[in-house]
Amino acid sequence: MTALALAGCMRRSGPVASVPPPPRDLDAMAYGGPPAPAPAPAPVVAAGSGGALAALRAGFSSRRVVAAAPAVYAAPMPMPVPVAYDAAYKLDAGDRLRIVIYGQEGLTNTYSIDAGGSITLPLIGSVPARGRTPAGLAAEITARLRNGYIREPSVAVEIEAYRPFFILGEVAAPGQYPYVPNMSVESAVAIAGGFSPRARRDRVTLTHTDAGGSVRAVVPLGTPINPGDTVLVGERWF
Description:
The chain is an alpha+beta fold. Helix content is 19%, strand content 22%. The protein has 5 helices and 10 strands. It has helices spanning 2-9, 26-31, 51-62, 134-146, 185-191; strands at residues 96-101, 109-112, 118-121, 125-128, 155-161, 165-169, 175-177, 203-210, 213-220, 230-233. Strand 8 (203-210) and strand 9 (213-220) form a beta hairpin.
């Protein structure tokens, strides 16, 4: 029995599994400080708590949510403003008009004022237009149509194209050109190709003709011109 007891005391113990110490960081290795803390273990999803779906939810909830920057939109481009035509403009030969008679397709058309200053419409014939405003001409046409032709006519007169202007003298291409609203003497010279080498460039002679007659004046380049005006560019003497 004594021999058996001694044999049991001398029995070797089995191998014991040990966990290696956590790695020491550089500061701990250099200065002998405490080892760096071990990284936190990854979360374990317990059985029965949602499985893969719960793990995905946990992953998304742990992410930082960054608010999107507000979108910046460019301001819309302003629409071009239509040219405002002068309601007091006096019609004359060469103007082309768009006359609309509502409900009367056969009478609605484009008409040009002839050299005598009149337009000719179906049913009512020749109507004087020279010296009238577009609204005045519309009133005259309405009165004539109401006199035995249409019970309650509604007429509108619009300027489709102005009569041309003329530029003469020391420019590259003198002649007749279509009038554009808000023109000046300077823009008329530009349309005619600019000054010739001998042109006087500080002032021109402008002739304006209306129902009251013709008016001629020496004006600077910034002077506005009207349909039917004549611009004369003179020659310099030095």
